[in-house]
Amino acid sequence: MIRLQDHFTFTLRSLTRTRFRTTMQLVAMAIGVLAVVLLTGIGEGGRRFVMAEFASLGNDVLVMLPGRKETTGGLPPLTGEGTRDITLEDAQSLMRISDVERIAPIVVGTSRLSISGLSRDSLVLGTTQDFFSIRDLAFSQGQAFTTREGSRSRSECILGATLRDELFGPKRALGQWINVADYRCRVTGVLTDSGTGFGFDMSNALILPVDNAMQIFNTEGLFRVMIQIENIDAVPAMTTAVEQQMKLRHDGQLDITIVTPDSLLSAFNNVLLIMTFAVAGIAAISLLVAGVLIMNMTLIGVAQRRAEIGLLKALGASSKEVRLLFITEATLLATSGAVLGMLIAEFILWGLRFKFPEVPFATPLWASVSAIGVSAIAGILFSWIPAQKAAKLPPVLALQAQAGK
Amino acid sequence: MTEAMKTGAIKVRGVHRRFQLGDQTVHALNDINLDITQGEYISVMGPSGSGKSTLLNMLGLLDVPDEGEYWLAGEDTVPMSEEARAGYRRDHIGFVFQSYHLVPRLSARENMELPMVLAGIPPAERRKRLAPVIQRLGLTERADHKPEQLSGGQRQRVAIGRAIIMQAPLLLADEPTGNLDTHSGADVVELLEELNAQGVTLMVVTHDMALGQRAKRRLRMVDGAIVSDDTFAISSSEEPAL
Ligand SMILES: Nc1ncnc2c1ncn2[C@@H]1O[C@H](COP(=O)(O)OP(=O)(O)O)[C@@H](O)[C@H]1O
Ligand SMILES: [Mg+2]
């Protein structure tokens, strides 16, 4: 019986002394795993990016829009065509419902901004102090509105990071006056660059107190009302409570729509589902390609070594020992190839995350596990089956394999 | 039987081997009967395709008869399991092939060491056994070369080293000089005969009349059957007295 140490010496020699064959098999194995890990990593990154966009809205925030639409499938109305406006008073009345923590009424429009000769069109958003807490917006300079509760709003405004740079460049923005159409406001704060949240690109927006914005756009109706609630579990109950309240105020007419985070997610569920399937499909195809690649390389390797199997048997190795030698070799090769491919893939993903920090490129565990599993199994199986066959042959036939070549 | 075990003698009874070639059956061994005692020097001659290699493979346990008995060291090897035959190949038989059959990635030394590795002999013991063999084969300077760096004669000497390293009592050589020039061929023959002189049973298949006639006992095969089996009292260059 061959000694354990000799077993490994023999295997290592056969790997290190036939460099070309070993390298080719290693590369086949590595490419297979690399393809799966990399492609699913990119696909999953995309999926998580979309998910994160929705999540940025917050789990505990309801959005009320004017107009009634049943949200059984399809997208909820993004532009409300309400029969009746949601007024500022309507929005403020919601604070009387217990469990409502904060509300933020919103009006949106575009307007021409100008400062000392410079002018450009910009997104203008009217809202209240609580909007910044609900959306988790932070300030790089200054602060939110200084208006005290109840009194008329001051002429103040807050700039998104990009807009600030475009309007003021290196100059100081805080305390400067800006013309918004025929209205003037003083800059009291600048937002940090928080990227794009769901809906609006805040870094390009100018934010005003809601009553001032309603004057500029000459409207009585709100675009949306964000309602933050204290208890996430109470979402269905709160939806009903808000609907009741609005029905009372609108003469028994239910003419608003409440969008919950769940309904929003489920509306986009189809999209997310397709992305998940796409990722799984990519993985499956890569695995298949990897498997075929590995099978080819391994089969060539074993065919070349049939004569050697015959020789080892002629020299007194039993079929069992010969099989064991080949399985050890195939296992060593398959696992190192798989690990190599995995390391390269993770390295590339790391580079991608570095280059595009906002997309969370990462391979799902199931993909890594099945990539390594499938290639290891393919590598071992496709070298084991022919080795098994060759080991079963009478040595003379296996030896003739070479003579025939 | 007890006697056979001691001498490592061979007894073959009614052995047949047939090959299927398309719809044709080739009768490669046709009723072979043979007794060989330890230490004999036997040559096997005959036309191409007459079954010489098949006979040698069968005696070397590389192939199994379809019919008949093959007694080696006191046991019939035909009903044995393949695993048991592997053990016999390792301990009782040394094989020398026409085309050497060396492992190309292993050095001369490692090729000769291979049977001992497969037998599980510890490295220290392996070195001890290798040293005199390498020296005797005149391979001291070439021991760490790969087969591709060796001449045909050197390769065949490595193969002989591998065949004798387990001190098998039976040495089978299938046209050992077939791929060699006259000079290295003579070298190899001299080496084999030296081993025979020390008590190893030697059986050589050859096309070469001169080589065949160096053996005391000469088998002649035609169409899978042994047609003559003559033993000559005087060996070497003497003509057989027919
Ligand atoms: N594995 C095999 N399959 C089919 N036919 C074979 C096989 N081995 C040998 N033969 C046939 O058996 C016969 C004897 O072959 P062999 O013993 O190699 O002859 P020799 O060595 O005397 O030239 C030949 O006809 C050969 O074709
Ligand atoms: Mg032959």
Report what the structure shows.
The complex is a heterodimer of chains A (405) and B (242). Chain A has 405 residues and is of the alpha+beta class. Chain A has 2 domains: 4-53 and 266-403, no CATH class; 84-254, no CATH class. Chain A has helices at residues 4-16, 19-55, 88-93, 130-134, 161-168, 210-217, 235-249, 261-267, 269-304, 306-314, 319-355, 365-392, 395-403, and strands at residues 61-66, 100-115, 118-127, 139-142, 156-159, 177-180, 183-191, 205-209, 224-229, 256-259. Chain A has a 6-stranded mixed barrel with strand order 2-3-8-5-7-6. The mean pLDDT of chain A is 81. Helices cover 34% and strands 27% of the residues of chain B. A 6-stranded mixed beta sheet of chain B has the order 6-7-8-3-9-10, sandwiched between helices. In chain B, strands 2-1-4-5 form a 4-stranded antiparallel beta sheet, covered by helices on one side. In chain B, helix 4 (108-118) crosses helix 5. Classes of the chains: A alpha+beta (405), B alpha/beta (242). The complex binds adenosine-5'-diphosphate and magnesium ion. Magnesium ion (MG) binds next to helix 2 of chain B.
